[in-house]
């Protein structure tokens, strides 16, 4: 089971996502958590994202898309996942639609 939870900041997405992920035993994938993890681990994507974050700018769609694609390619999501905070823009949604078949997901 793959679920995408959308909503504005502060609407309770994270709380609901964690609850649903726990109940259905799927991985909770939060865009913010993934960004921080990549920055903390010094990945190439994290290093690039940190430049924008340090400048107080939004991380570009193209970089977020790459970070999500990398995360969805990991084996722990094969039994399902809960996406929290992605997609937020039309380009992100379009990229996700194109990305999922390449990862053998629908």
Q: Can you tell me the CATH topology? A: Rossmann fold
Question: Runs with pLDDT <50, length 5+?
Answer: none
Report the sheet with the most strands, covering strand number, pairing sense and barrel closure. 3 strands, parallel
Class computed from helices, strands and strand pairing? mainly alpha
> What is the string of SSEs from the N terminus onward?
EHEHHHEH
CATH architecture descriptor text: 3-Layer(aba) Sandwich
Strand arrangement, major sheet: 1-3-2
Shape: globular
Q: Structurally, how many domains make up the residues?
A: 1
Q: What is the distance, rounded to the nearest whole angstrom, between the alpha carbons of the first and last residues?
A: 10 Å
Strand content: 5-15%
Taking all residues together, what is the mean pLDDT? 92
- Determine and state the CATH class: Alpha Beta
CATH superfamily: P-loop containing nucleotide triphosphate hydrolases
